Amino acid sequence: MCDGRSVSRSQFATLFAVIGTAFGTWDGNSFTLPDTRGLFLRGVDNSPYTGTAGRDPDRNARIPVGPGANSGIAVGSYEVDSFRAHNHKNAWFASGAHQHWLSSGTDGSGTVYTTHARFGTRVVNVPGVGVTGPGVYYPTGGLAREDLTDAATATATIPMEGDNETRPKNVSVTYIIKY
C-alpha cells in the first residue's frame, strides 16, 4: 500500500533494492514507501536512454515528498499544484445615469477615508455630513455611492500570474513495461 509508511529494509529487501530511499527514509534501518494518497502520478521527465522529453517544464524545481526523498528530475520528487500563467481582461460600459460604489477605511489615526474608484483620490468622510461633493453620498455601512449622469466605458487588465503549466499535485514515478 502506498501510504508513506516506514518499513524495514531487511524485511522488504527486494522492494528496497528497487526503490531505495527515493521516497524518503527516517533512519539507516528503514525506508519510506511512496505516499500517493491524494496525488496524481507523473512519469519522471528523464530517461537514461533518450534524455528529457520536455513535458515537465518545472522538472528541476521539484521538491522532496518527505524527509530524505529525492528532488529535481528523479523518482519520488513532488510538485505542488499550479495554474499556467495567464491574464484577464474585462471591459464594461455604463450608458447614461449610473452609480459607482466606493470603499472606505481608516488610516490608523481614526480618520475615515474613501478611495474614489474613478479618480484614485482619498476623500475624507465626515460623519453626519451626508453629501461631501456633487453626487457623492455616504450612507451608513462603510460604502460611499457616487451618482453620475454621463456615460462611461472602462477596461482593466489583471497582470499575468501563474506558472509554466497547469497541473495537479503530483509525485514522479517511472512507468515500466514488464514482459
Describe how the helices and strands are arranged.
Layout: E1 6-8, H1 13-19, E2 30-32, E3 40-43, E4 63-64, E5 77-79, E6 86-94, E7 98-106, E8 112-115, E9 122-124, E10 131-133, E11 136-137, E12 143-148, E13 152-161, E14 170-173
Parallel strand pairs: 3-14
Antiparallel strand pairs: 1-2, 4-5, 5-14, 6-13, 7-8, 7-12, 8-9, 10-11, 11-12
Report on the structure:
It is built from 1 helix and 14 strands. By secondary structure, it is mainly β. The protein has 2 domains: 1-84 and 162-179, no CATH class; 88-159, no CATH class. The strands form 4 sheets. It has a 6-stranded antiparallel sheet, with no helix packed on it. Strands 3-14-5-4 form a 4-stranded mixed sheet, with no helix packed on it. The longest helix has 7 residues, at 13-19. Mean pLDDT is 74; it is low at 106-141.
Shape: elongated
User: How are the strands ordered across the major sheet?
Assistant: 9-8-7-12-11-10
> Poorly predicted ranges (pLDDT <50, ≥5 residues)?
106-141
Total separate domains: 2
Separation of the first and last Cα atoms: 23 Å
Counting DSSP E segments of at least 2 residues, the number of strands comes to: 14
C-alpha-based Rg, rounded: 29 Å
Structural class given helices, strands, pairing?
Answer: mainly beta
SS element count, helices:
1
Provide mean pLDDT, rounded. 74
As a percent range, the share of strand residues is 35-45%
Helix content: under 10%
Please trace the helix and strand order, writing H or E for each element. Answer: EHEEEEEEEEEEEEE
Largest sheet: 6 strands, antiparallel
